[in-house]
Write a structure and sequence with these properties.
Blueprint (H helix, E strand, L loop, with lengths): L1 E4 L5 E4 L4 H29 L5 H26 L5 H6 L1 E5 L7 H17 L3 H9 L6 H6 L1 E5 L31 H13 L5 H19 L9 H21 L5 H6 L13 H6 L11 H4 L16
């Protein structure tokens, strides 16, 4: 998995293509290209039989450049990085930031590919792909591109588990601006897979992530809160802030809580909603678990109502 961060600070998880799949895609492209080249050459030879030797040689060179270099560049440009071989193997060429390639990227890849693929029979390209961390050949390095897998085996959807209701809103005062994207990805990956880990290994990993998160926020994790619950509560707080910024705070607590429904029904819209919509409701920080627990049961999803 390759973690790329775009200019909008969006982390992308891309799977770089392995050498076997890339070699198969190139082989398919070469077979098609040489087949077309042979047919075009026969047609050109038949139509230029009256030309002298120099003119015929110039026409053959132009045909070679047009069919074996120009056509692949045009195909990759128009298809945004998917040639016939890459389409068959489920691959695609993208920029280093994850965006679609343009003509200049395809031109550099095609020009360098003449040397490292056609003239050296792919030896230079194979060596460069084996040496590169992300399997890039020289054309990808000079063009600033990456070949990734488009068809990834579909797996079950993984959601971040919700924090305990009595922790919702407790970390509203944390400064999350200093937490790097890589740490967010690591915390999310741990929360979605902690049920598959050994208990001791999972606890050690949660303590380490909680320590790193506390160091980035400037506030250490509370000793009375389990590390996994602390991580889930902070992730929930970040999602709530992102939703509030996205929707402009319209609807008060309703938008704050309802926007987190991506993790399943009643997963993140517990008592945090009414704490904003109704100021007279006691904040979730001081709410005991015995009172906050029934907040998930009402079908309206409006949280709990304190006793009179």
């Amino acid at each position: 998995m390759s973690e790329l961060v775009t200019g909008e600070a969006v982390a992308l998880e891309l799977r770089p293509a392995k050498l076997p799949s890339r070699a198969l895609a190139v082989l398919i492209d070469l077979v098609v290209a040489f087949t077309v080249y042979i047919l075009v050459t026969l047609a050109v030879v038949a139509s230029t039989s009256s030309l002298d030797e120099a003119a015929a040689a110039a026409v053959m060179v132009a045909t070679f450049v047009l069919v074996l270099v120009g056509v692949p560049i045009a195909v990759e440009t128009l298809s945004h990085g998917r040639s016939l071989g890459k389409l068959a193997c489920g691959l695609r060429v993208v920029r280093d930031d994850g965006g679609p390639i343009r003509f200049r990227h395809a031109l550099v890849r095609g020009a360098v590919g003449v040397v490292e693929i056609l003239l050296t029979f792919g030896v230079v390209a194979c060596i460069a792909s084996l040496v590169s961390e992300r399997g890039r050949r020289l054309g990808d390095v000079f063009a600033g591109t990456l070949v990734v897998r488009e068809r990834v085996p579909a797996g079950p959807a993984r959601f971040v588990p919700p924090p305990p209701p009595w922790l919702v809103g407790r970390f509203a005062g944390l400064d999350l601006s200093g937490v790097p994207d890589g740490l967010w990805l690591a915390i999310r990956s741990y929360l979605t897979r902690m049920g598959q880990l050994d208990p001791q290994v999972g606890l050690a990993m949660a303590e380490r992530l909680a320590g790193d998160l506390g160091a980035c926020t400037g506030a250490p994790a509370p000793r009375d809160v389990p590390p996994a619950a602390y991580l889930a509560a902070v992730v929930h707080e970040r999602q709530s802030r992102d939703a509030q910024r996205a929707f402009g705070g319209v609807g008060g607590g309703g938008a704050h809580a309802g926007s987190n429904g991506l993790n399943g029904p009643n997963s993140l819209n517990g008592p945090a909603g009414p704490a904003v919509a109704a100021p007279h409701v006691a904040p979730p920080v001081v709410t005991p678990p015995s009172v906050a627990a029934p907040s998930v049961t009402p079908p309206q999803g409006t949280g709990f109502v304190p006793p009179a």
